[in-house]
Amino acid sequence: MSKRTVVLAIAAVMFLGAALFAQSDEKKSEVKRTDQKGVSLNPADPGYVIGPEDVLRVDVWKEPELSGNVPVRPDGKISLNLLGDVDAAGLTPEQLATETTKLFKKYLEDPRVTVTVVTVNSRRVFILGEVGRPGAFPLLPEMTVLQALSTAGGLSPYASANKIYILRHENGKQTKLAFQYKRVIKGENPEQNIVLQPGDTIVVP
Protein backbone atom coordinates (compact mmCIF):
# COMPACT_ATOMS: atom_id res chain seq x y z
CA MET A 1 0.00 0.00 0.00
CA SER A 2 1.41 3.37 -1.02
CA LYS A 3 1.94 6.29 1.35
CA ARG A 4 -0.67 8.27 -0.58
CA THR A 5 -3.28 5.55 -0.06
CA VAL A 6 -2.51 5.41 3.68
CA VAL A 7 -2.86 9.19 4.00
CA LEU A 8 -6.18 9.16 2.17
CA ALA A 9 -7.47 6.34 4.38
CA ILE A 10 -6.50 8.19 7.56
CA ALA A 11 -8.15 11.38 6.31
CA ALA A 12 -11.36 9.48 5.53
CA VAL A 13 -11.44 7.99 9.04
CA MET A 14 -10.86 11.41 10.62
CA PHE A 15 -13.62 12.97 8.51
CA LEU A 16 -16.06 10.21 9.48
CA GLY A 17 -15.18 10.64 13.16
CA ALA A 18 -15.73 14.39 13.00
CA ALA A 19 -19.09 13.89 11.32
CA LEU A 20 -20.22 11.41 13.98
CA PHE A 21 -19.02 13.76 16.75
CA ALA A 22 -20.92 16.69 15.23
CA GLN A 23 -24.04 14.55 14.94
CA SER A 24 -23.67 13.56 18.60
CA ASP A 25 -23.32 17.20 19.64
CA GLU A 26 -26.40 18.11 17.61
CA LYS A 27 -28.43 15.44 19.38
CA LYS A 28 -27.18 16.67 22.77
CA SER A 29 -28.13 20.24 21.96
CA GLU A 30 -31.56 19.02 20.90
CA VAL A 31 -32.02 17.34 24.26
CA LYS A 32 -30.95 20.52 26.07
CA ARG A 33 -33.75 22.46 24.37
CA THR A 34 -36.31 20.41 26.29
CA ASP A 35 -37.26 20.42 29.94
CA GLN A 36 -37.22 17.38 32.23
CA LYS A 37 -40.70 16.38 31.04
CA GLY A 38 -39.63 16.35 27.40
CA VAL A 39 -41.49 19.56 26.55
CA SER A 40 -39.66 21.83 24.16
CA LEU A 41 -38.57 25.18 25.55
CA ASN A 42 -37.85 26.65 22.13
CA PRO A 43 -40.96 28.26 20.56
CA ALA A 44 -39.51 27.63 17.10
CA ASP A 45 -39.55 23.86 17.69
CA PRO A 46 -42.65 21.96 16.50
CA GLY A 47 -42.95 20.31 19.91
CA TYR A 48 -43.24 23.55 21.87
CA VAL A 49 -46.32 23.45 24.10
CA ILE A 50 -48.21 26.72 24.52
CA GLY A 51 -48.65 27.94 28.08
CA PRO A 52 -50.59 30.66 29.92
CA GLU A 53 -49.37 34.24 29.29
CA ASP A 54 -47.58 33.32 26.05
CA VAL A 55 -48.33 35.68 23.15
CA LEU A 56 -49.37 34.06 19.86
CA ARG A 57 -49.68 35.26 16.30
CA VAL A 58 -52.75 33.82 14.59
CA ASP A 59 -52.88 34.35 10.81
CA VAL A 60 -55.97 33.46 8.81
CA TRP A 61 -55.21 33.44 5.08
CA LYS A 62 -56.84 36.36 3.23
CA GLU A 63 -58.65 37.40 6.43
CA PRO A 64 -56.62 40.25 7.97
CA GLU A 65 -59.47 41.25 10.29
CA LEU A 66 -59.32 37.79 11.85
CA SER A 67 -55.53 37.80 12.18
CA GLY A 68 -53.27 39.32 14.81
CA ASN A 69 -51.41 38.84 18.07
CA VAL A 70 -53.38 37.34 20.93
CA PRO A 71 -52.32 36.67 24.54
CA VAL A 72 -52.98 33.36 26.21
CA ARG A 73 -55.00 34.14 29.32
CA PRO A 74 -54.21 32.59 32.72
CA ASP A 75 -57.09 30.16 32.12
CA GLY A 76 -55.26 28.89 29.02
CA LYS A 77 -57.69 30.34 26.46
CA ILE A 78 -57.36 32.89 23.66
CA SER A 79 -60.09 35.10 22.22
CA LEU A 80 -60.55 35.19 18.44
CA ASN A 81 -62.97 37.10 16.23
CA LEU A 82 -65.96 34.93 15.19
CA LEU A 83 -64.86 32.06 17.43
CA GLY A 84 -64.75 33.66 20.87
CA ASP A 85 -62.76 31.72 23.47
CA VAL A 86 -60.56 28.87 22.26
CA ASP A 87 -58.41 26.54 24.38
CA ALA A 88 -54.71 27.09 23.61
CA ALA A 89 -52.61 26.05 26.59
CA GLY A 90 -51.35 22.49 26.37
CA LEU A 91 -51.36 22.46 22.56
CA THR A 92 -48.52 22.93 20.10
CA PRO A 93 -48.89 25.81 17.60
CA GLU A 94 -49.63 23.27 14.85
CA GLN A 95 -52.33 21.58 16.93
CA LEU A 96 -53.92 24.93 17.72
CA ALA A 97 -53.82 25.88 14.03
CA THR A 98 -55.57 22.62 13.14
CA GLU A 99 -58.22 23.15 15.82
CA THR A 100 -58.96 26.75 14.86
CA THR A 101 -59.11 25.78 11.17
CA LYS A 102 -61.89 23.30 12.01
CA LEU A 103 -63.76 25.95 13.98
CA PHE A 104 -63.42 28.59 11.26
CA LYS A 105 -64.99 26.20 8.71
CA LYS A 106 -68.35 27.11 10.23
CA TYR A 107 -67.88 30.67 8.96
CA LEU A 108 -65.32 30.55 6.11
CA GLU A 109 -65.27 28.53 2.91
CA ASP A 110 -61.62 27.45 2.92
CA PRO A 111 -59.87 28.67 6.08
CA ARG A 112 -56.11 28.32 6.37
CA VAL A 113 -54.68 29.14 9.77
CA THR A 114 -51.10 29.37 10.98
CA VAL A 115 -50.07 29.92 14.60
CA THR A 116 -46.67 31.10 15.79
CA VAL A 117 -45.38 31.95 19.24
CA VAL A 118 -44.39 35.62 19.44
CA THR A 119 -43.40 35.84 23.12
CA VAL A 120 -42.74 33.11 25.66
CA ASN A 121 -43.99 34.08 29.11
CA SER A 122 -45.12 30.70 30.42
CA ARG A 123 -41.61 29.29 30.93
CA ARG A 124 -40.61 31.28 33.99
CA VAL A 125 -39.44 30.75 37.55
CA PHE A 126 -39.88 33.13 40.47
CA ILE A 127 -37.24 34.01 43.07
CA LEU A 128 -38.32 35.79 46.24
CA GLY A 129 -36.62 37.08 49.38
CA GLU A 130 -32.99 37.79 50.16
CA VAL A 131 -31.41 37.82 46.70
CA GLY A 132 -29.83 40.57 44.65
CA ARG A 133 -32.71 40.91 42.17
CA PRO A 134 -35.93 39.15 43.19
CA GLY A 135 -38.55 38.66 40.52
CA ALA A 136 -39.55 36.47 37.57
CA PHE A 137 -36.87 35.00 35.31
CA PRO A 138 -36.94 33.03 32.04
CA LEU A 139 -36.53 29.31 32.61
CA LEU A 140 -33.54 28.21 30.55
CA PRO A 141 -33.10 24.57 29.49
CA GLU A 142 -31.81 22.38 32.34
CA MET A 143 -31.66 25.36 34.73
CA THR A 144 -30.88 24.28 38.30
CA VAL A 145 -31.58 26.03 41.60
CA LEU A 146 -27.98 27.27 41.87
CA GLN A 147 -28.08 28.67 38.34
CA ALA A 148 -31.37 30.43 39.02
CA LEU A 149 -30.03 32.00 42.21
CA SER A 150 -26.99 33.21 40.26
CA THR A 151 -29.32 34.78 37.67
CA ALA A 152 -31.05 36.64 40.51
CA GLY A 153 -27.76 38.16 41.66
CA GLY A 154 -26.95 35.60 44.34
CA LEU A 155 -27.83 35.65 48.02
CA SER A 156 -27.83 38.83 50.08
CA PRO A 157 -25.71 39.05 53.27
CA TYR A 158 -28.90 38.58 55.29
CA ALA A 159 -30.07 35.38 53.62
CA SER A 160 -30.64 32.22 55.66
CA ALA A 161 -28.64 30.11 53.23
CA ASN A 162 -29.64 26.71 54.60
CA LYS A 163 -33.35 27.50 54.89
CA ILE A 164 -34.04 28.09 51.20
CA TYR A 165 -36.93 26.13 49.69
CA ILE A 166 -38.67 25.63 46.38
CA LEU A 167 -42.46 25.71 46.00
CA ARG A 168 -43.77 23.55 43.16
CA HIS A 169 -47.34 22.95 41.98
CA GLU A 170 -48.06 19.50 40.56
CA ASN A 171 -51.41 17.86 39.97
CA GLY A 172 -53.19 20.57 41.93
CA LYS A 173 -50.96 20.19 44.98
CA GLN A 174 -48.13 22.35 46.31
CA THR A 175 -44.85 20.69 47.24
CA LYS A 176 -42.11 22.25 49.37
CA LEU A 177 -38.55 21.17 48.49
CA ALA A 178 -35.63 21.98 50.79
CA PHE A 179 -32.40 23.52 49.48
CA GLN A 180 -29.43 23.92 51.83
CA TYR A 181 -27.22 26.32 49.89
CA LYS A 182 -24.00 25.99 51.93
CA ARG A 183 -24.06 22.22 51.78
CA VAL A 184 -24.84 22.10 48.07
CA ILE A 185 -21.95 24.40 47.09
CA LYS A 186 -19.64 22.16 49.16
CA GLY A 187 -20.71 19.17 47.09
CA GLU A 188 -23.00 17.79 49.77
CA ASN A 189 -26.68 17.00 49.08
CA PRO A 190 -26.29 17.43 45.30
CA GLU A 191 -29.77 15.95 44.84
CA GLN A 192 -31.21 19.21 46.22
CA ASN A 193 -29.86 21.15 43.25
CA ILE A 194 -32.81 20.08 41.14
CA VAL A 195 -33.66 21.03 37.57
CA LEU A 196 -36.43 23.61 37.81
CA GLN A 197 -39.86 23.38 36.21
CA PRO A 198 -42.00 26.19 34.80
CA GLY A 199 -43.74 28.05 37.62
CA ASP A 200 -41.35 26.98 40.39
CA THR A 201 -40.84 29.57 43.13
CA ILE A 202 -37.56 29.76 45.03
CA VAL A 203 -37.93 31.39 48.45
CA VAL A 204 -34.81 32.73 50.20
CA PRO A 205 -35.66 33.68 53.83
Describe the 3D structure.
- This protein is an alpha+beta fold and 205 residues long.
- It folds into three domains: 32 residues; 65 residues, wza like domain (wza like fold, 2-Layer Sandwich); 81 residues, Roll (Outer membrane lipoprotein wza fold like), CATH 3.10.560.
- The chain is 26% helix and 26% strand.
- It contains four helices and ten strands, in the order αββββαβββαββαβ.
- Strands 7-6-10-8-9 form a five-stranded mixed beta sheet, with helices on one face. The chain has a three-stranded antiparallel beta sheet with strand order 2-1-5.
- The longest helix has 30 residues.
- The protein is elongated.
- It starts with a helix and ends with a strand.
- The N terminus is likely disordered.
